[in-house]
Every structure is written in C-alpha cells, then in structure tokens.
Task: inverse folding
C-alpha cells in the first residue's frame, strides 16, 4: 500500500469509529450535557463573556479532537507493525 492509500484507509477507519460513537448512548449523554453547559453559560455570563468562553471551549475541543485522531492513527500503525512482526501480515 502507498502512503496515500494508508492515509485514506486510516481516515475511513477513523470516520467509521466516529460515526459509531456518535450513535452511542455516551454521545447522546454528551450532547445533552453540552446543551446544559450552553444554558449555564447563557444564564451566568454576559454576551461578551459567553462569546469568549465559547471560543476557548471550541479551541479546546479542536485540540482534543486532533489529539484523539493522532492517537487513533498511531494505534492502527502500531497494530499493523505488531501484526507484521508476528508474521500475520506480509
């Protein structure tokens, strides 16, 4: 497989994992919790403060998403390497 094919495969696997997670009870809980947090921000902070906090939370979410993606992809690479070393993959 070429690097592009590996990248595409890893992206597809990650997309499927994310889709599966979004259909889970945990994701449903997280969505409800986000609504509650948004309501707390709206009631307890001014519009400017809420906007500032929204930006911070958004940036933190992006960083967390990227870290999760990087760890997931590295895990797949590590698994492939282990399977090759065990002779399961050529």
Result:
């Amino acid at each position: 497989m070429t690097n592009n094919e590996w990248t595409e495969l890893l992206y597809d696997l990650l997309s499927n994992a994310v889709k599966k997670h979004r259909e889970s009870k945990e994701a449903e809980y997280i969505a409800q919790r986000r609504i509650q947090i948004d309501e707390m921000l709206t009631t307890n902070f001014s519009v400017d403060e809420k906007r500032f906090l929204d930006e911070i939370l958004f940036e933190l979410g992006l960083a967390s998403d990227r870290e999760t993606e990087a760890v997931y992809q590295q895990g797949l690479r590590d698994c492939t390497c282990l399977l090759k070393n065990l002779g399961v993959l050529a």
Observations:
- The chain is about 90% helix and 0% strand.
- The two ends are 11 Å apart (CA to CA).
- Residues 1-17+45-90 form one domain.
- The CA atoms of residues 83 and 89 lie 6 Å apart.
